[in-house]
Amino acid sequence: MIDVQKLTMHYGNFVALKGISFQAREKEIVGLLGPNGAGKTTAMRILTTYLYPTAGTAKVNGIDIIEKPVEVRKLMGYLPETAPLYPDMQTEEYLRFVGHARGVTGHTLIERLRWVREACGLEGVWRHTISEISKGYRQRLGLAQALIHDPKVLILDEPTSGLDPLQIIGIRDLIKELAKEKTIIFSTHILSEVEAIADRIVIINEGEIVSQGTQKELEDEVRAKGENKPDLDLEDIFISLLKPKKKKGKA
Question: How far apart are CA 155 and CA 125, in angstroms?
């Protein structure tokens, strides 16, 4: 469904991405994991056609993001790290506006509004002005706008940011349910988020992919390097894979 090939991104002299390649299969949840500043958000902005890469490309459902960006956007729902909200609008008004912008109208829009209101837990703030609702509700509203047009692909940047523990569990469950029909890529630096919902993991650091695979495959990779700890969790794996390589001394 998503095929990323040698994506490179320069901001002046700074290289944010250094030729990364990875795939996300149909109905798969792929977690982009890495420390702050690793390049996760840049990769997602390129996939959503918000940024134009310096080199490389990607295809979404066989459509090239550079050659046909508008067609790619039709397939995609995007929740950036800071949700794109209009604080003077009411919750329902805002979602209607996004729906119309996405070409959703009439009975279909009514049904989609009803669905996102329930799925994202917005019943309590449905007629509230966005400036009045909490950060957690704003995050849920941001997820709702990404889902209003029922996209095939979801790109979620820190989707549980600002949520309380119960809300986090609710969003996790929703993401897993959505993956029965959609391909989902989400980014986070929170290990437990990836461990809970990702089918496969792509670990990024300093603009490069350190490793990728299922958690079991990453564990096997770490053990092959000599790790003998009996029970390896994702934190152990992450620390081991990001550990700087020892430089060989001069002979």
Answer: 25
